[in-house]
Amino acid sequence: MPGEKELNITLFDQLTIVERIERQLENGGEEAAKKEIEIMKNEINRKLYQKPPLDGNK
Predict the structure, then answer these.
(1) CA-CA distances (angstroms) from residue 18 to 8, 10, 22, 57?
(2) From the CA atom positions of the chain, what is the Rg in Å?
(3) Cα separation, 45 vs 51, whole angstroms
């Protein structure tokens, strides 16, 4: 089970994602938000499938 530090990191990451989408909706509308979501998905996939993989135990 993750500790408080790991949970806080996850929550801050999630908050950052929401803020990025909100900013795009305010400044560029729906299409800008969709593009931002696609960029974030690509960033997450790079982290998930990087070589060597992330090791959360270090």
Answers:
(1) 15, 13, 6, 27
(2) 14
(3) 12
Longest Cα separation, the chain:
40
Q: Are 34 and 27 in contact (CB under 8 A)?
A: no
Cβ-based burial of 55 (10 A; exposed 0-12, middle 13-18, buried ≥19): exposed
pTM over 0.85: no
13-56 per-position pLDDT tens digit = 999 999 999 999 999 999 999 999 999 999 999 988 887 766 66
Residue with structure tokens 């997450």?
44
